[in-house]
Amino acid sequence: MNRSQLDHILKAHHRDAYLWARQCCSFEDEMAKDVLQQAYLKILEGQAKLKDASKAKTWLFSIIRYTAIDELRKAGKVVSLSDSYDPVEIQEEIDSTDYEEIIKHLPEMQREVILMVFYHQMTIAQSAEILQIGLGTARTHYDRGKKKLKELITKVQIQEGYGK
Amino acid sequence: MENNEQLERFFDQMKKQDEHLEIPAFPEVQTRKFSFWIPAGLAASMSLAFLFIQEPAPVESEPPEVVIITLQADENQNQHFTIEETTFLDTWESPTSSLLSEY
């Protein structure tokens, strides 16, 4: 695949790629921009090669995710895997329209699967490919994430109801 | 059939909010890859420059190492010494060869 074909693919997915980079960087705009730039460099320098053009979005998302993990690790913001299994309890009051803040309360893997399926319209199998985990594991994250997010949304709505 | 209405509504609203996000322009990425043509071009121009700049070294004439002294008689039978300086000898005659024939 030559440079102009890669350029074309990247441009076609640029908006989604930026939004995904942002979601991988805890919704931090500047970090997301850096991550995206680095991911594009990796691709255009040939460090990451696309073998199947039909899987371009999955491939791009995977590169962005790993680049974001590296950046977060450098910034000392990586949560260990064991910590990421238990959802963070909501202590403070959250606005029910602060979707980013609500979703940030989900454990990392659940958050990523849920975002890929519901926000980016991907399948659980594609999510598993991006996260490089088995389909069964991805399905477990999906089910738990869904359940937890529903609980969080309800909790925030109840908190808001009491506040009024 | 999954009941995901609540979640779908949540993400629809989140997407609507994200429509107001400023998406950065697609960056003009300059790859850091070191092109093969750069070192090749440098090597080619350096070798050309080397060929043009290099002047032919002057051929130094070797210092004369051989002095040939000959005794020659002119038409009046007067004998003259001629002295020649050269780097080599065409023929060589032993200085003592005359002893063999004359004695």
UniProtKB/TrEMBL annotation, chain A:
<dbReference type="GO" id="GO:0006352">
    <property type="term" value="P:DNA-templated transcription initiation"/>
</dbReference>
<dbReference type="Pfam" id="PF04542">
    <property type="entry name" value="Sigma70_r2"/>
</dbReference>
<keyword id="KW-0804">Transcription</keyword>
<dbReference type="InterPro" id="IPR013325">
    <property type="entry name" value="RNA_pol_sigma_r2"/>
</dbReference>
<dbReference type="InterPro" id="IPR007627">
    <property type="entry name" value="RNA_pol_sigma70_r2"/>
</dbReference>
<dbReference type="InterPro" id="IPR013324">
    <property type="entry name" value="RNA_pol_sigma_r3/r4-like"/>
</dbReference>
<dbReference type="InterPro" id="IPR014284">
    <property type="entry name" value="RNA_pol_sigma-70_dom"/>
</dbReference>
<dbReference type="GO" id="GO:0016987">
    <property type="term" value="F:sigma factor activity"/>
</dbReference>
<dbReference type="InterPro" id="IPR039425">
    <property type="entry name" value="RNA_pol_sigma-70-like"/>
</dbReference>
<keyword id="KW-0731">Sigma factor</keyword>
<dbReference type="InterPro" id="IPR036388">
    <property type="entry name" value="WH-like_DNA-bd_sf"/>
</dbReference>
<keyword id="KW-0238">DNA-binding</keyword>
<dbReference type="GO" id="GO:0003677">
    <property type="term" value="F:DNA binding"/>
</dbReference>
<dbReference type="InterPro" id="IPR013249">
    <property type="entry name" value="RNA_pol_sigma70_r4_t2"/>
</dbReference>
<feature type="domain" description="RNA polymerase sigma-70 region 2">
    <location>
        <begin position="11"/>
        <end position="77"/>
    </location>
</feature>
<keyword id="KW-0805">Transcription regulation</keyword>
<feature type="domain" description="RNA polymerase sigma factor 70 region 4 type 2">
    <location>
        <begin position="99"/>
        <end position="149"/>
    </location>
</feature>
<protein>
    <submittedName>
        <fullName>RNA polymerase sigma-70 factor (ECF subfamily)</fullName>
    </submittedName>
</protein>
<comment type="similarity">
    <text>Belongs to the sigma-70 factor family. ECF subfamily.</text>
</comment>
<dbReference type="Pfam" id="PF08281">
    <property type="entry name" value="Sigma70_r4_2"/>
</dbReference>
TrEMBL record, chain B:
<protein>
    <submittedName>
        <fullName>Uncharacterized protein</fullName>
    </submittedName>
</protein>
